[in-house]
Amino acid sequence: MTMKTMQTPSSFNLFSAKDGLVSDDTKAKSRNKRLVLGCGALVYELVELIKHNPVVDQAVDLHCLPAHLHNTPQLIGPEVDKFLSEHAHRYSEVLVAYGDCGSAGELDRVIAKYQASRLPGAHCYEFFSGADVFQSMMNEELGSFFLTDFLVSFFDRLVVQGLGLDRYPELKEVYFKHYKKLVYLAQKDDPELQTLASQHAAFLGLDYEYKFVGFDELKPVTFGLDSEHKLGSIEVQHVST
Amino acid sequence: MSDQEDDFELSDLDDKELVEQIQDDLYDGLNDEVFEGVEILLERKWDANDILGDALVGGMKIVGEDFRDGILFVPEVLKCAGAMKQGMGLLRPILANSAIDISLGKFVIGTVKGDIHDIGKNLVGMMLEGAGFEVIDLGINNPVENYLEAIDEHKPVVMGMSALLTTTMPYMGVVIEELDKRGMRNDFHVMVGGAPLNQEFADAIGADAYGRDAARSAEMASEHARSVQAS
Ligand code: B12
Question: With a threshold of 0.80, does the pTM exceed it?
Fold first, then answer.
């Protein structure tokens, strides 16, 4: 998959035809499966963890919602709710691969409704780097703006167009006047993405810093499938009503 | 709002049409047109306060409603705010020299420690100014000491805190607790706001009011200031 040439994904349905959402036969089969409903911005890492591991793949169905919901977090809860209302009943467990993401507790209310779990933390920058590391980066320079592999790849669509900088370049100053550096929190060690990220930093007029963080923090989505653990015993956030 | 090619002079419009046109131009983020419209109303001897209230604040209210309803997005709102700033720039010196003091008092506002989001706070500040408050803007990343100093110096009627991150929201509670400890909690009203907040959270930390958007926040603050002035 070459990310750089792909269109920004809007909504991913990664159910293959045979384990899809349509046939009754499949519905019966999915009853013992886990549903992972993720943010589109995590799709590459989720695909790597789920689809590229045959053991996990046969036990998990993955669906991602559009990444641009990030800019309108009030819609995340309702969109997750809509999807789960149609599909959750067919699964033995549901993991929502989102942080709180500024949904103002709404996502947690929805998750509790379906007795699902979600990833720990406030947002993906925090859980990719780990809460302590993230906090120490913020303490060191509060004016840090973070990018992940996904955001580096789709910077034009999600940052430039998302913030309206294509239409109103003069807003760059309004958005970023308090920022000093762009920190690329890399999931993969990819020199091409690093070059792109440093160009994005230059575009925003920010210093550039590279930090490899990987995506171990997303591993909860596979827990219990290739080990003895059950989902409930690992470090995912369980929300009570 | 208006998408026809408009080929007319603002000065040809009557007052009512001109106010509506300024609101339209503000909605479209047209700085120069808003500036010119305000200039014309001033030439027509309109009171600066009425221009502010009817044309600018009136226009921003429509912007706020459409933002809330998902018709306008953050970039467009920023363009509108820029246009409003242009108009306010013209009115501010006149309002400051006005013989009649219509001030509702001082409003100290700032984004809390650890947070450097400031778009919403700035918008609220603008609407508060439009409503007649003297706004003391502490900027971003404010530890409790900054609020305390400003309160000491300015004796505000209302103090406002903004937070956009789930991780910085709780700091609002820390500030309120400190005010409590120092016996200052009831000296002024405390308002809080920011996208991830809600009334429940504001109640839990003991804030007096939660401002869901700029227009509503300005109304709530005005109501409070008037009730203080009346008592
Ligand atoms: C614009 C924006 C930015 C801009 C900020 C520019 C600036 N100068 O402020 C940029 C792009 C720089 C940015 C950076 C980051 N952001 Co940001 N950002 C947003 C976004 C898209 C919009 C916020 C906004 O300005 N809204 C417009 C204004 C008008 O609305 P508002 O702020 O809600 O304010 C209104 C009301 O709430 C109220 N109000 C606000 N304050 C007050 C105060 C008082 C007293 C009162 C009465 C009322 C009131 O009135 C206002 C006017 O109507 C939000 C998502 C969203 N839609 O909320 C994410 C969001 C807040 N950001 C988020 C994140 C994670 C970040 C970053 C960490 C991302 C990164 N890639 O690094 C960094 C922060 C890094 C750092 N060092 O702190 C997350 C927070 C998630 C969470 N769990 O907390 C959000 C929710 C996006 C998401 N879904 O993940 N961001």
Answer: yes
* In contact, B111 and B200? CB cutoff 8 Å: no
What whole-number distance in Å separates Cα of residue A19 and Cα of residue A22?
Answer: 8
Nearest by CB: A102 against B79, B196, B201 = B196
User: ipTM value of the model?
Assistant: 0.90
CB A179 within 8 A of CB A143: yes
Between the CA of B210 and the centroid of ligand 1 the distance, in Å, is 17
Q: What residues of chain A lie within 8 A of the CB of B78, using their CB?
A: 164, 168, 171, 174
> Residue B218 is which amino acid?
A
Q: What does the alpha-carbon distance between residue B79 and residue B184 come to, in Å, rounded to a whole number?
A: 38
The Å distance, Cα A128 to ligand 1 centre, comes to 20
Nearest to B175 by CA among B199, B143, B209: B143
Q: pLDDT tens digits for A132-159?
A: 999 999 999 999 999 999 999 999 999 9
Q: DSSP of B38-87, one letter per residue?
A: HHHHHHTT--HHHIIIIIIIHHHHHHHHHHHTTSS-HHHHHHHHHHHHHH
- Pocket probe for ligand 1: among A39, A145, A159, the residue whose CB has the most ligand atoms within 8 Å is A145
Q: Is B58 in the pocket of ligand 1 (CB under 6 A)?
A: no
Measured distance CA(A99)–CA(A220) in Å, rounded: 13
The order of strands in the sheet holding B105-111 is B133-137, B105-111, B158-162, B189-193, B209-211
SS3 for B136-153, per residue? EECCCCECHHHHHHHHHH
